[in-house]
Design goal:
Mean pLDDT: 91
Helix content: 25-40%
Number of strands: 13
Order of helices and strands: HEEEHEEHEEEHHEHEHHEHEHHHEH
Low-confidence stretches: none
Strand content: 15-25%
Number of domains: 2
Shape: elongated
Radius of gyration: 24 Å
Oligomer: single chain
Bound molecules: adenosine-5'-diphosphate, cytidine-5'-diphosphate
Length: about 425
Amino acid sequence: MARHLKLLVQRWSSRVFSVEVDGAPRYFGIREQLRGEPVPPDVFSEVQKQDRCYSLLVCSGDRVTGDRFHWELRDRLQRQLPPGSGVRSMSSFIPDQKGSLLKGYFLQSRAGNSSLIEDILTDLEQRNPVLVCSYSQSEDGQQWTQCLWYQSEDNPVRFCVVPSETPKHHPSVLNMINSDVFYSLDEACDVLKQCGDIIPETRSVLGMLPSSLDARRKPDFPVIVIEGLDATGKTTLTESLRDSLGATLLRSPPQCLSAWRGRFDREPPLIRRAFYAVGNYITAEQINQEASKSPVIVDRFWHSTAAYAIATAVTGPVSNLPHEGAEVYRWPGDLLQPSLVILLTLDPEERKRRLRSRGLMKTDEEEELDHNKLFRTRVEEAYRRIVGSACIALDASPSADLVLQQALLLIRAKCHL
Ligand SMILES: Nc1ncnc2c1ncn2[C@@H]1O[C@H](COP(=O)(O)OP(=O)(O)O)[C@@H](O)[C@H]1O
Ligand SMILES: Nc1ccn([C@@H]2O[C@H](COP(=O)(O)OP(=O)(O)O)[C@@H](O)[C@H]2O)c(=O)n1
């Protein structure tokens, strides 16, 4: 057994397990022996007596390979497993221990399916960096036990499954920095460099990077970023601002990356977020060049990268976001700071109306925004919590001309234009 797996299992009983049920995590822990009355955790409450459950946790020593494997595993399980296996996202972590998160899936076998499922899982465990556990119910139906699969033949260790309190931090928060949100160009580039062999396009992306960065250089002209959810009116406003102020209009990700964007949108979060992070630095270099000649308007920048990444990594209500003031909301030290960031806010119904009148939605994430109210509120709240270049909210519901006038007033007041 690989050394990192052995190390992992050594602290196994201090781990908490979380399973997504109806878009929010439910937690359970394990004990070597039960103290007091056993209470089955709610994850298991709807499982039938004759059913078995299984968990698969990805524990690769290499995070790029591990994340890609985890990403592809859901499709693979859904293709291979019998219908009704109910594949759910799951994770395991040591409370408050940064970097301790393992991601995986939880599933159940209906009566008669377990030998087929066990064959599939055994094969998966033998060929991949994945740790499988099985869960079974006691005769009297009062207790569930967890068994580490690789041990089950020679030295089976059974743990009792117990309910666990909701932890102080959502599990994803433990691994967010440099996995979902990157705070320096070097960290984002490290991920892309590791992908060179599997995604040849990364070489072209890295080739677009400026040779040196100077985040402290103060642009001669103001740099104004316009942020907001899809269809809040960013394109409309940025184009009008360009014309009214005689400004240069830029966007992040920059035009020069557009050929590769779709490719990275299909990758798991680690790689996708590294791509968007790098895009901001390329845009920053373009801003530096243009802001010596005229004001610059930027359509999306760092706020979009961080807010969507944070809001996607956590699940459930806004209270599951990292708390206000947390490290994840800080502006990266090596990234140019705009003079002003305006966040366009819009009533959800009006946003939907504008989306419909514009035509089809674009990214899966934007489609998710429409369906999932909780996700939308998490993105908006994450936008507001970012510090270092905090955003000023502007109501985007009046007519396009009125929104422009309001934005111009803000720009004149804050940037002395
Ligand atoms: N202030 C406004 N009032 C009404 N409709 C607007 C306004 N601003 C933009 N729109 C319309 O809403 C849709 C989305 O606007 P767009 O500028 O493309 O948003 P974004 O760039 O944020 O996705 C477009 O059809 C646009 O014409
Ligand atoms: N600077 C940026 C811009 C976009 N993005 C990502 O790109 C998606 C939105 O891009 P989009 O092209 O649909 O947005 P619009 O500019 O059309 O509103 C979000 O889901 C973000 O994850 C980012 O991470 N960083």
